[in-house]
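To make the argument concrete, we let one protein speak, a sequence paired with a row of structure tokens, as a model reads it:
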Amino acid sequence: MVTVSNPPNSPRSAKKPAGTPPVIGAAPVGSRDPESAARAVREMFTSIAPRYDLLNHVLSFNVDRFWWRRTARSFAQVLARPDARVLDLCCGTGDMTLALHRKAATPEIVGVDFSHAMLERASKKSSSLRWVEADALCLPFPASHFDLVTSAFGFRNFADYDAGLREILRVLRDGGECGILDFGEPRGVIGKLYRIYFQHVLPALGTLISGVKGPYAYLPASVERFPEPKEMLERMRHAGFREVSWTPYSFGIAGLFRGKK
């Protein structure tokens, strides 16, 4: 596991001028407040649901499958417990949920998303798992209920990052673990090449394949807006998590944030 800091010349550290107020959460174009931001995100993901899986695999060159499997392996100790309760937030079409299920001895795995269209596709992949339509900032579960809460490429889209962390903490049992897998911004030569692809090629391909422009123009902007690892770890500590860490995947293109209650 890696705890990160950013050198002065890193693109992430140069992104926010001194005195810039902290980012609250996702802010799609046209949103005015957390409520309109959440509504815009839901509409975007609903619009691309029919081709969501294809686009994920094509645009990531199938590396996304490796990221899900690696994340599931990271929580093998929890998943091996037959009595463990597991929640996968912003589950989309269920790929992270299914990766957890394949590693788990427990049948208690729940996938949550606020896009009905996404959950319809998830339920077609597995009718044995429980799929719940709900807002991640206001979960329909009692406090201290889950042993593990994950979110793969969904936390970045929360309308309020800190509120999301507090809600995850609320539903976790004491000693329970949290895993947030999301995109990052690699450095060096790889980072420069990646940014050309991510900011120009990926939006064009995504729009071409999906036939919808907004979501794939929003994607690189949402990654740039997302807190850098050092700040995200501090937000997790402030929310009440302990033993927080960040592990980069694929040169930092993605990474796993972990914490315990």
